[in-house]
Amino acid sequence: NILIPMITTMTGSFFQTMNDFEQFDNNPELVEEFFHFMAVIIKYSPKMFLQSQNDINTVYEAGIVGLQVTTREAHRGVITFFDKFVSVIAKPDKRISLSADIMNEYLVKITLIGSSLVTGLMLCLSGELSVGTLGGTRIISDLLIKLRIASNIVSDTLFHEWLQSAVNSMKPIPAKVASDINLVGLYAANEDTIYAKIDSFFWRFQKK
Asked: How far apart (Å, rounded) are the C-alpha atoms in residues 78 and 71?
């Protein structure tokens, strides 16, 4: 496929320029466009995305860094990228046929990045990283649900472990928040209630 070397070259050029947090923070629109482009590739050809990356871990790690950028544009692009990536396993497009090997590669990668990603998302919700620029918590709720679905394929306790690790990474939770919101309770929340739980946590934490 002639697109693969083009994507590989573009990715390499992006990381040659955007090689530290300061560059990410100073160029939020470029960050958004890059990760949106990666998301589009995954949406239409998950296999091509894997084939086009010389060092795919760099993309994941850069995405985690991107969550720390305090602008809407960067956040939107990064979370869209992770959402499409996790969706390959959690909400696969029935129109796209993928081999067992490709599906397994995505699942392995999700397992490896899951803890860091959940921690980054929960730090956004806690206010330690900026989430207000996202225009609400639904986009994070959707991604957390998909991460839980994907993790359950590996182990029914894995998401709980990721969430507990995230809670341990956060600053002390104010007593009035902790008494009302059990973060680890998100593990047991079904899709109908997880949105309310996350919204409640976010707004209470912001008002601490």
From this structure: 11
Burial class (CB in 10 A: 0-12, 13-18, 19+), 153: middle
3 state SS of 178? helix
**CA–CA gap between residue 135 and residue 57 (Å, rounded):** 29
* Angstrom distance (rounded) from CA 82 to CA 146: 10
160: left (phi over 0), alpha (psi -120 to 50) or beta: alpha
Decide: 170 and 118 in contact? Cβ < 8 Å: no
pLDDT digits (tens, 9 = 90+) for 112-166: 999 999 988 887 776 655 554 455 567 787 888 899 899 999 998 898 888 888 8
* CA–CA dist 166, 151 (Å, integer): 15
Contact indicator for 194, 145 with CB cutoff of 8 Å? yes
Give the number of other CB atoms < 10 A from CB of residue 97.
Answer: 9
Look-up of token digits 């620029």 = 133
The token pair that represents 132 in the structure block: 């207000």
Whether this prediction's pTM lies above 0.90 is answered by no
